[in-house]
Each structure stands twice: as structure tokens, then as C-alpha cells.
Please model this.
Amino acid sequence: MKLPIIKTLRVKVVLLALLPIALVMVVVSVIAYTAIINSAREVAERRDTELARLAASRLSENLHHYVRTLQSLSASDACRSLEPQQIDAMFAASKSWLYLFDGGVFVYSRDGTQVWASPFAARQHLRRFPLPELFDRLENSLRPVFSNIFSHDAVNEEVILIGVPIIDAAGEFVGALAGFCSVRFSLLGTVYARVLEFESGRKGYAFLVDGNGRVLYHRHTSLLATLLDASEPVARVTRGETGATLTSRPSGERLISGFAPVPDTAWGIITQEEWSVVSAPIFDYLKLFWGMLWLGGLISAGLVFFFIRRILQPIDTLIRGTRQVADGNFTPITVPTSGDEIEALGRQFNAMASALSASFSKRTRELEAAQEELIKHEKLSVLGQLTATVSHELRNPLGVIRSSIYFLERKQPNADPKIRQHLARIEAQVELCDTIVNDLLDYARTRQPEPVFTEITPFLESLVEEIALPDDIHLRCDFEADIPIVPFDRIKLRGAITNLVENAVTAVQAKQTEKETPPDYQAEISFTARASRRGVRLTVRDNGVGMSPETAAQAFEPLFTTRARGVGLGLAIVRKIAEEHHGGVTLDSRSGEGTVIELEIARWGHFNAAAAASHPSTPSVTQEKDG
Model:
């Protein structure tokens, strides 16, 4: 009689063998599940904590841009005077900066009484500073303050207040300058959006609350000014805590939330993402793990001891790997070369760790790049506003002053020498102001270069002849033979070279005035032109005062200068011209020894090389010019 297959000894042995295997697999599965889920939660909490902290730092930097605007106004003599007429004149020239404060801008005296209100806020009549405790903090700390959301009888909207102290020349508190922003309609919402609308995941977002837990910014505008202090992340961030936590909605859906306070305010940022979005890939890996583990147990029932050893060792490795990931170490684990599913699982785990590491690094780089781009954008925006203001407000008055000087000189040809001396001083200062205006316009204007293939040596010779130097400064020029024909814009290149030579003249003149300069010091400037691998390299070298490493590192930054006069655009313009010619500029300077600046003009690939080769080479030119 043939026994049913279920009653065969072979099946019974296999079934008996499967019991300890099944028990071991259950234990291993539970351990792996717990370790991976806990590790994933820790990694997600670390990520969300860092995202919230970086977003809070970026928001603080954005807010302080507008604080600096208020501080620059509060530091003016008009604001310090607390005289409404003077303040009116000051704010009339600065009203384009105050579009953010749709609730009005107010000036208060030391006792908290209003002395001035912006025209569009005059009807609101905030005769007293609305938040006395915030006013006391302004007086005691002399630092900017950001209020929580509040309502006022004179303001029919939920608002926040940004205030800065008014400090007189003696450093004493004399009053406060405050801007009011409505929560629902102020353009401050665009500042929040630039920082907080980031891709944390398919369903992730961030929002901003004040120190009482009321919503300052949220993707869902219906929640603005809503009190959320019952939420754990909100409650913790209002206590000044930074971190992340798992919470549940009333619907039962779990959320992972990161939170961090915004520096220098009582506000806080909370990031939120559905936990299912984070955990879904992990559960996929767990399902794969369980499937392979149980399949391996069924297939290898007859070789139980061998497979136990083979299974437990890789699992231990995976557990150690998950602990590494939980500690923030994304180093790949050692994958066993068994050639089976466990090896595949180890590789998949390494792929997961690498993906988490890449995601974390990418997000950090994106936030840093966004922050740098935002700073650069804000700086260029300020420069554009400054250029427009200066060109409009100064050039016409400068023209009037110049015409008046000419008229006075013609009308009084035999005037007293002192009068002529003062007229000359006025004219010199007008020329200085005109130079500053031209520098600003040169940097801000967007005219594209108009390069023409030209022999550069005659151009340089002509330019050198136009340079007028003091008699005690020696200029040496050396232009190499066989300089390639390169395309360049004559006007732009003339401006760049003139700028470099003028900087060199300033440096050697400063050296001449130093007390420790040797009596036999000879001020020298050299100007050379050489063929380079990329095209032509122009070098201006001087033996002047040089620069410190810190100054040299910032020399090409717009608006950076160490001079008492000027706006710091000279070298920035030179770099811009070099980049427009597909080249570059480098600086090598040592304090007390001198400076070397090299400007390179590149050959452009879309020009026909044969056209350049058809021009004859220019002879070597070596010439010296004194004075």
C-alpha cells in the first residue's frame, strides 16, 4: 500500500526540520523588521531635523535683509531727530524699500508715543507702541525684535511687527522704528514661500508659527493665524526645541515632523511628511527579505544546519549595517559573496544606504546653493536699485554744478586765488562723483561685447600712449612677438586695462606715503602681453603696498573696497569683461611687496582659425615710458 505523500518519512523529517528553521526565521524577521524600521525612523528624523534647521537659518537671513533696511533708516540723522518733517523727507526717498510693510511704518519716541507714521498708514492712528513688553526689549537689548501675531483696535487685520531701536550718536536709546505686516496680505508671504516651499517628498511641506503657536505661513491659507499649540511639534518648537517626532492625525494617518526655532525670533518652522511615503520603500525591502528568507528555508530544509549558518551571518551583517545607518554612517556594509538571495539583499541594502546618503547630501547641497544664489540675487538687486537711484539723482545735479563752475570761472577770470582754488576743489570732487556713477553704470549695464578680430599690439601701444602717470612713477611695457590675433571689444578691454593700471598707480602711491618705505624706493609698474595656451595673457605688476590674504580673497567681489573713496566695482568690472571675452582674471598679492594681476582673453572656437593665421605676426615691442 502506497502511503500518502504526507505520511512519508522524508516529508516528516522535512517538516520536523522546518520547525526550528521557521522559529529562527521568525525571530530573524522580527529583529530585522524592528532594526530597519527604527533605523529608518532615526534617519528620517535626522533628515527632517536638519531640513527644519536649515530652513530656519535661511528664513532668519531673509528676514534680516528687511531688518537691515529698517536699521539703515533708523540710523539716519532724520530718524534720530524724531522731527516729522525730516522723517517725511527721508521716507519719501526710501518708500520703494518699504513695500513689505503693508500695515504701515511708524516712529515712536522713547516713551512709546507715536511721532510719525507713513502716509499710507496715517489713518490707523497707533498713538502708542502696541506691545509694551516688546518696546521694553528694544530699549534694553538695542536689538531688532519680531512680534507674534496680534490684533489692534486701529488695525482691522492680524499683523506682526518688526521693530528696530533708534540710537543717537552717543549710543543711547531715543525711540523705535516699527513696520507692520499683515499676516494674510503682506508680501512677506513671498519671503516665507521662497524658503518653505521645498520638495521634502511627494506630500511633504513646511509651515511657520509664531511664539504662541499661531500660523504665520501655511500652504493652506485658510490656516493662517490659526492656533495650533495642541500639536506636539508646534508645542515643542515654541519652547525653543529642535528635533523631529512621529505624530498621528485624528484620521489615524502618521506624520513625521521636523521642527526648529527661527534664530533671533520666537517663531518656529515645522516640516511635515506622511510617514507612509518614507516607510513604503523600506517595507518593499522587508517583503523582499522575508520572501527570500522563507523561500530559502523551504528549499533547503534537508540542509538545515548549513543554511542556518549561511542565513544568520549575513543577517548579522545587515543588522550592523542598519545600526551604522541609524548612527548617520552610510558606509556600505560587507556583502557576503555567497551568490544567493542574501548577497542580493545585502547589495540592495547598500543601494538603499547609498540612496539615503545621496539624497541627504543632495538636499544639503541644494539648500546651500539656494542660499548662495539668494544672497547673490539680493546683492545684485541692491546694486541695481543703487545704480538707478545714483544715475538719476546725481548726474543731473553734477551737471548743474559743473556748469556753474564753468560760469563762475568765465565771469571772474581775475578772481581771488583762494576762490579759484576752491572752485578747482569743487570740480575735482564733481569728477570723483562722476567716476563713481560711471563705475556703477559700467557694472550694471548689460551691453554685450562686440568683439572684432584685431592685432592687439598696436591697440596696446596706442593705449599706453594715452596713459598719463605722475613723473615719479615708472611704467615699463613689454609685448611679446607673435601674439595671436584674438577677437575683443576695444572699448571694454580699454576700460579693463585702464582700471588695472589706475589700481597699480594707487598702490605705488600708497607705498610712497608709508613711513617705513626706504628712501631709495622707486615706484614701478610693468605691463606685459604674452601668448598663452588659450589666447593672450595681459599682466599688470606693481611694487606697491600689496594686499592681505583676506583682502585679496574678496578683491573681485562687487561693492568691496578698502579705499576711503569709491564703491568697490573696479576689479569686479575687470572680471566681468574677462568673462565676456571667454577668459579669466587672477590676482597674486603680498602685503608690502606688490600685486600681480593677469587678464586672459581666449580664442573663440566659432571664429575661423584660418582667418587669424592669414594676418602677419607683429614684431616684438619693448618700450619704456616715464611719467
Remarks:
- The longest strand covers residues 155-167.
